[in-house]
Amino acid sequence: MKKRLLAMLGLAAGGIALAQSAARASAPAAAEVPGWAEFAEAVRTLPERMLAKLPAGMQADPQIRQEVARLALEAIASQSIDAIGGDGDAPRFLPSIGQVLNVGQPNADTTYRSTWVTPGGTYRITGRRGSLRLAVLAQVVPGKNGRSHLDLGSLPVDKDGRFSVLVGPEKPAGYDGPFWQLEPGVARLMLRMVSADWGHEAEPTLAIERVDKPVNAPRAPAATLEGRLRRLPRMVDMMALMFVDHVEKLRAEGFTNKLKVFDVPEGALAGQFYYEGAYDLADDEALVIDSPVPAKCAYRSLILTNEIYETIDWINNHSSLNDAQAASDSDGRLRIVVSARDPGVRNWLDTSGHAKGVIQGRWTGCDSHPIPEVRVVKIKDLKKVLPKDVARVTPAEREEILRARRRAQLERPLW
Predict the structure, then answer these.
(1) CA dist., res. 372 & res. 313, Å (int)
(2) φ/ψ of residue 210, rounded to 5
(3) What is the per-residue pLDDT for 146?
(4) Residue 29: its pLDDT value, please?
(5) 405, 322 in Cβ contact below 8 A?
(6) pLDDT under 50 in the chain at which residues?
(7) How far apart are CA 31 and CA 14, in angstroms?
(8) Given this model, what pLDDT does residue 1 score?
(9) Where are the domains of the chain?
């Protein structure tokens, strides 16, 4: 009886196995999304490809590894937003870089947005001008640095402070309003909104619409969606890999605690001059930046970055200064102290735990572009090199400055 039962069970198990095998053979292949596997593979290998651009010591540093992973996530997030929401026929200004999407050392005072435009299309941009001293649109032509810019402050406004400008390849016959001609090949517009006096300036508002075709957004074809997905790995790579080794390159060139002109490879703001250099400071050291100030200047600033060229958190730290935040000394020269410890001077840039990084300065719309002098001194010796009447703050005053700047920055648009 027992043998018979075992035989029956064996036959049943064999039948089940045959049935399962037949079901697998007849089942359709697992569905795949064209382009997704390539994107996933690019994301999987991105951090190690970023680390490969850095020296062995940095590659082995657990802190740097995690910061590289964060930078990779920032690049993925930035470009994923663009892939999801970018549409030249139904345009909108989307976040590109900034406080959270901290790729390519965003300026602490600038909110960055961009939108796709379809080559050959005509658009209307409307909104409120606001009171920022700089709110500028730029046409982005791949591979071209010199770009056409439109200062929103140059546009006429109505009694409510609203503007309207037509944008396209050719000015329509009979149209006599504000017009901005798009260059051949333009597929994107970039917006920079620069605030110096945080909390006391009003941001502009912008809407963009295509006017040479009906307003609608039909279901995107599969081919269009696939094209965006397949472009995504290339765009993420460009953002993540472009500047990850920039600090090390400056060090290799001998610009540690020294400054040089920075010729931005692509996308510089019109009329903006950059200078920068790597810094490397011990905990008891300070870097004193000393510069004449141009007689005429629309805007100036200094920011700090970490070792992989992320801008150091300026919301919660005193790691950026502009002309509304850093006044000149009584002799007319601008002096700023960079250090890990608060030196008690008002014009201080806090390295915030980053002993190495980059100092980057901007002169915008200025009648001269001086490269500041820099020197490394012990923090205890600062009194010997700074003017006796240099502006100073107490720890309590610094705390209030930090809280006030944090509140003011958080009241600005995140993007």
Answers:
(1) 24
(2) -85, 130
(3) 60
(4) 63
(5) no
(6) 1-3, 5-9, 11-13, 16, 23
(7) 30
(8) 47
(9) 36-242, 246-410
CATH of domain 36-242: 2.60.120
- 36-242 and 246-410 have identical folds: yes
pLDDT, residue 267, reads 64
pLDDT of residue 263: 86
Was domain 246-410 assigned CATH 2.102.10.10? no
Q: Which two three-digit tokens encode residue 302? A: 């200094």
